[in-house]
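Annotated sample (chain length 205).
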Amino acid sequence: MKNLFITAIVAISINSLAQEIPSGEKIDQANKPDHVINDQTLRKRQHILQFDYSQSSSQLITSSTTNSTSFNLQGTYGYNIGHLEPFVGFSSSSEENMSNGDKTNVSTSVFGIRYNFIENRPGNDLIPFASFGLLSSTVDSVDSGSSTSVSGNGTALAAGISWYPFSEIFAVNFGVVSSHLSVSGATFSGDSRSTSVLVGYMISF
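Output written by the structure step:
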């Protein structure tokens, strides 16, 4: 949360930079596009760096069913082409059972595509979206002193909104994610289903 506030302050201070005309560009006053504001060309939102924090409620189904809650950090890079944004990313989550000390760490790589219901370009401040991702995860757990590592693949569906409150390059994200992961290892196999609520920020340039 501290990092989110620091980024917001930085974003406000560079708001004027986001409105500058990129070097070498000229404005055609006779044929100005709709997104030209105050006779200036806003910087494009072509490259997207996104950082999210989420809390997940998970259910692991093997020979029995286990419910748990975990906290996740995720970073992604996306390439904006208007309504579509293909992206790649990595997330890490960790949980600890306070009663017996068991720990579980999950590392996940994701490749997916995001659809913006409103084109993500300068001048549009509220961008509702939906996304689909392919997941590849490794789960490392320590149970009663012994460690177990399993891997799996799955999918994730997300929906939310990105809001540009300060400038054309900084946005706040809110969303909900539902994921399904099939895991297998030497000792067990099963399905993991989770629902996450996320909040984060992204920088566009």
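Annotation: The first strand starts at residue 47 and ends at 61.
Annotation: Confidence is low (pLDDT under 50) at residues 1-30, 35-40.
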